[in-house]
Task: inverse folding
């Protein structure tokens, strides 16, 4: 493992070495070129109605040639606490001319509130097994004493009444263009009047009455929450909300929920409680409890079961029968992150030298020796825990047993006591002589790239990677580096250490591609340091007069296939010259229709075939795409998807705004643990079988997954099915074997093993289920479905899965409760929220999203590990104006106008300043006297000798350290900057992205559960 990781930039210093100022003017583009987007200032407001560039932006934003012009529009400011508003029209009704149209205050929308009491943790509840818990002990379903949620205003439907549809809003609404969005946000037209809602799409649930579909507007009044009634409720391990009295329906636009947002399940509270549990105590892998949440910082003690860092199950109690699994509706599977990084204080993975006969394995099923195989007959036999047959122990592996039946050499053999172990691979696992990794960096130098400043930025990144302080210590021993550039020709460079200066050889015939160098192309970067540094000094100006708009990236990918390693492509336009050139097939008219899925499928097989060849050669391809226009990620991006590489999309790349992010993204990729020429085999014990895999890899249908490369931040999903009935008194086992070559050139086999309890009780399946893993599993499965089904269908399927899982629990584990109560299992009480978050993710959300952005997001979700997927779906929101930074639920209503908040999702962060934030706080953080003087163009927070600034800096540094890289940083001032639109889009508990709020979605799910139980849901 490489111990070093990318270093986050130091606030106040240039976010990357040798940063250059943005160019003030660009030459006239050559015919056919795409002009790089240059806003008035990086990250600031663009022309009127044009939100800052970003993921999921409207077409005029993503491809700004057609963006309207004009001055920035003012922003509608939500009312302050207690501020009186003009008389309100009914929600959803268009005011008459001259009538005020402000949204109705939240208090006026509430007529009754419900209460939720957090469950009391008692022995026997989830996460708290009984004392003396044996391996096969099962909890009784009758031990669950449910607490109830019943949204008032959501009564059981009368017999014969048509149930509500089973999916959130479909993507059938007309889009809101940037100028319309800005006018709506600014309140033009009637003063403060919200647009009239579009009718619900076919098959969608009822919509909220106010606001236009797709508009991401701050809610009317932060902090306006209904008064809380007195606490009541029940204790127990499930959660519910009781409905006091008869539900009432307000007049006007239909029923609205009266759930108190403070009383529904809170992810912040759940995560804080779990973190407190493991703040001082480590997690022991054989403790027979569910592991810590993916958001929790914890330390692992490996007792024989695999650590949750490497493998997570959807449930840790396996149903004994297929019928019981089907009854639970929980998918059975796991998420595997085989090269995950360990945390400080954890024991390193031990290396086993197996000897001439290779690792000890079962003679029948070929499972590797692990801590759950039992020895007998004085140590001369062992029973396989996968196929349950007796194996003879070879003489060279024999050892006596102690009085407890354990081998006396257990401490000398890691495979007998560790859930994760690594073997040195023998000759039978080596097809060709392994070598240290070779890294080839291919840099686009066509007109688009030069005008964006990409060559100069890449020179800084390469210099920092190879020659910064301590760079040589973290560089893999024996690894080699090559650099090439390309436009319509491909330029190879010789960095032979005997040369006084580098040599460039140009191959103009890209249809007959070859590498024209026998030596000097791949070199040791430290033996050739003077020559490489001379090239890096020259690269920023070497192509500054280049007027070629064409690029032959397909020929570049074809040429690098003779040695295992990685090819990193830095590319700026649609492949348009030579092999693999593509046509622009982007068709916005397909957005939101059933035919949109056509844009997600490749337009030909060139890059698929090329990716398969790269896998055979052990070449992993990473793609860094700087989008100034359509690039057809669905076709071109297959190179990284098939080989297991990285695909990073930078929409409307701007050097000052995105340079630091690119810098640390590349350094993180080059310094984390990496393996190439890899193969994965997953085994399940008797009675179970591997049914499917989801992720970015090549699957030839042989049962083995082939990956040209895999790194510490990549994961894949494994779906399991029953072959036979399981023995309740036995345990089931899962084993993952990864065969790969390390960056230093060593062939290794990493083995992960877990043993799971079998159960005949449905309550135990739920009690030991793991929501974070289930959500990640469902997301990966959904990303496979989008190629054959519409986005609306996929969203509907996710909602139906959520409803069926919760209905199964309600029907089978809490049947004695009132039918009008919503019963949520403790482990899955946040399932509706995370289902809604999936609906709002840019891979699936309704509305117009550029196909490149969608496909890049889909491919990212398919390889994202569980710990990185949770903040991406439910961002972290932290209050910075409090004495201690405090986590806050992600809703605009919870923001204090006198406060300062930071929201981050692992990809970007926004620092939000309320309009009433104290001048002392602003001066302490920024050194100015009011928020009007704060520069919204800041992309690094300058350090100051002030306690408040240092407190904020500490939080920012903690975020950078958590992800090992820089996140795009934006300052947002409430009611001033149009960047607040992007900030509001992260408020997933609110109504946005043409989807409901958390409260309304919970009400909707309750109705669907009731219909499912009554058998009327369709």
Result:
């Amino acid at each position: 493992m490489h111990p070093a990781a990318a270093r986050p930039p130091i606030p106040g210093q240039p976010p990357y070495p040798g940063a250059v100022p943005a160019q003030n003017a660009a030459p006239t583009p050559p015919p056919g070129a795409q002009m790089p987007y240059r806003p008035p200032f990086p990250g600031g407001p663009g022309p009127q109605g044009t939100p800052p560039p970003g993921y999921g932006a409207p077409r005029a934003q993503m491809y700004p040639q057609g963006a309207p012009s004009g001055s920035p529009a003012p922003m509608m400011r939500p009312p302050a606490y207690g501020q009186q508003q003009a008389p309100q029209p009914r929600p959803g009704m268009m005011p008459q001319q001259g009538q005020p149209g402000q949204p109705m205050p939240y208090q006026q929308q509430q007529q009754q509130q419900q209460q939720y009491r957090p469950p009391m943790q008692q022995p026997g509840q989830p996460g708290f097994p009984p004392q003396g818990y044996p391996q096969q002990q099962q909890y009784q379903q009758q031990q669950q004493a449910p607490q109830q949620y019943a949204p008032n205003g959501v009564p059981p439907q009368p017999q014969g009444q048509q149930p509500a549809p089973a999916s959130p809003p479909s993507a059938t609404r007309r889009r809101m263009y940037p100028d319309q969005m800005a006018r709506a946000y600014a309140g033009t037209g009637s003063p403060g009047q919200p647009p009239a809602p579009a009718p619900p799409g076919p098959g969608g649930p009822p919509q909220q009455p106010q606001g236009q579909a797709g508009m991401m507007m701050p809610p009317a009044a932060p902090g306006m929450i209904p008064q809380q009634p007195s606490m009541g409720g029940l204790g127990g391990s499930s959660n519910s909300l009781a409905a006091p009295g008869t539900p009432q329906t307000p007049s006007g636009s239909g029923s609205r929920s009266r759930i108190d947002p403070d009383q529904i399940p809170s992810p912040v509270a759940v995560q804080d409680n779990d973190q407190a549990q493991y703040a001082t105590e480590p997690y022991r892998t054989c403790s027979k409890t569910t592991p810590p949440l993916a958001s929790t910082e914890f330390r692992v003690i490996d007792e024989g079961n695999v650590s949750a860092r490497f493998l997570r199950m959807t449930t840790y109690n396996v149903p004994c029968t297929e019928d019981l699994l089907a009854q639970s509706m929980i998918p059975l599977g796991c998420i595997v992150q085989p090269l995950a990084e360990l945390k400080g204080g954890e024991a390193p993975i031990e290396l086993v030298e197996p000897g001439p006969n290779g690792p000890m394995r079962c003679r029948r099923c070929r499972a590797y020796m692990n801590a759950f195989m039992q020895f007998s007959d004085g140590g001369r036999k062992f029973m396989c825990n996968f196929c349950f047959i007796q194996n003879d122990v070879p003489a060279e592996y024999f050892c006596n047993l102690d009085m407890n039946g354990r081998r006396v050499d257990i401490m000398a053999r890691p495979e007998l006591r560790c859930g994760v172990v690594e073997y040195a691979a023998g000759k039978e696992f080596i097809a060709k002589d392994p070598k240290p990794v070779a890294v080839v960096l291919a840099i686009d130098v066509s007109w688009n790239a030069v005008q964006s400043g990409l060559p100069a930025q890449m020179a800084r990144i390469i210099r920092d990677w190879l020659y910064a302080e301590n760079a040589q210590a973290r560089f893999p021993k024996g690894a080699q580096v090559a650099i090439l550039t390309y436009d319509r020709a491909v330029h190879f460079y010789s960095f032979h250490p005997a040369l006084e200066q580098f040599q460039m050889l140009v191959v103009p015939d890209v249809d007959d591609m070859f590498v024209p160098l026998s030596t000097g192309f791949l070199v040791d970067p430290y033996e050739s340091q003077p020559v490489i540094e001379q090239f890096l000094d020259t690269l920023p100006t070497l192509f500054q007069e280049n007027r070629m708009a064409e690029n032959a990236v397909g020929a570049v990918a074809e040429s690098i296939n003779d040695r295992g390693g990685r090819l990193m492509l830095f590319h700026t336009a649609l492949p348009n010259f030579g092999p693999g050139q593509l046509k622009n097939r982007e068709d916005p008219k397909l957005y939101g229709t059933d035919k949109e899925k056509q844009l997600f499928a490749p337009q030909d097989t060139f890059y698929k075939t090329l990716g398969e060849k790269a896998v055979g050669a052990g070449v992993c391809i990473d793609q860094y795409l700087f989008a100034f226009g359509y690039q057809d990620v669905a076709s071109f991006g297959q190179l990284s998807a098939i080989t297991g590489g990285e695909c990073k999309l930078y929409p409307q790349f701007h050097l000052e705004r995105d340079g630091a992010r690119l810098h640390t993204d590349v350094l993180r990729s080059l310094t984390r643990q990496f393996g190439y020429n890899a193969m994965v085999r997953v085994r399940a014990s008797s009675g179970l079988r591997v049914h499917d895999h989801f992720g970015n890899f090549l699957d030839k249908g042989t049962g083995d997954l082939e990956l040209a490369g895999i790194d510490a931040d990549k994961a894949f999903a494994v779906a399991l099915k029953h072959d036979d009935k399981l023995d309740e008194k036995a345990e089931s086992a899962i084993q993952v074997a990864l065969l790969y070559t390390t960056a230093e050139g060593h062939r290794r086999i990493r083995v992960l093993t877990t043993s799971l309890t079998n159960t005949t009780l449905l309550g135990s399946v739920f009690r030991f289920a793991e929501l974070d893993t289930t959500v990640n599993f469902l997301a990966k499965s959904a990303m496979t479905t989008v190629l054959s089904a519409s986005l609306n269908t996929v969203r509907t399927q996710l909602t139906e899965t959520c409803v069926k899982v919760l209905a199964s629990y309600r029907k089978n584990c809490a049947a004695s409760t009132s039918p009008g109560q919503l019963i949520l299992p403790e482990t899955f009480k946040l399932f509706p929220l995370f289902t809604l978050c999936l609906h709002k993710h840019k891979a699936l959300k309704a509305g117009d999203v550029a196909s490149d952005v969608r496909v890049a997001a889909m491919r990212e979700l398919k390889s994202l590990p569980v710990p990185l997927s949770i903040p991406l779906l439910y961002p972290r929101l932290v209050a910075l104006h409090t004495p201690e930074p405090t986590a806050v639920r992600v809703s605009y209503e919870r923001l204090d106008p006198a406060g300062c908040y930071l929201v981050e999702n692992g990809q970007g962060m926004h620092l939000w300043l309320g309009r009433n934030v104290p001048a002392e706080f602003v001066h302490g953080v920024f050194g100015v006297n009011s928020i009007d003087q704060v520069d919204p163009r800041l992309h690094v927070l300058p350090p100051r000798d002030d306690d408040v600034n240092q407190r904020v800096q500490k939080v920012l540094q903690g975020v950078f350290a958590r992800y090992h890289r820089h996140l795009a940083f934006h300052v947002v001032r409430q009611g001033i900057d149009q960047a607040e639109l992007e900030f509001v889009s992260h408020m997933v508990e609110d109504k946005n992205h043409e989807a409901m709020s958390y409260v309304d979605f919970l009400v909707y799910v309750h109705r669907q559960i009731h219909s499912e139980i009554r058998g009327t849901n369709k």
